[in-house]
Design a protein that fits this description.
Elements: H1 2-27, H2 48-79, H3 83-112
Helix pairs in contact: 1-2, 1-3, 2-3
Length: 114
Amino acid sequence: METILVNIGISVLTGLIFICAGLALIYRPPKEINGAYGYRTKRSMKNSFLWKKGNSYSGKLLIINGILMGVLGSILACIITKFEYAMFTIIGLMFVLIFFLIARVEKKLKSLDK
């Protein structure tokens, strides 16, 4: 039972980190293109329009992914009771969510870059 609670806690904490990062990108977006803070890819750093759109859109997706991470991670933690398996599954979920976030933002920026 303790391992289930630990895995739920990790899922929720990771989700909260995603949500906080998303809120930061929406309410305190980086003003200038920089290499330290914001959604930084070659395409997003191409010009200030793409930079602003990329940060705004990735912030929204981070909030959605944070909620998904907390909910789905908690469900997986209840289903997969062995700590190591649950942990690897939760980490895998995190990477999948990040991968799809990047793919969606890049697709959006590509459509705006025409």
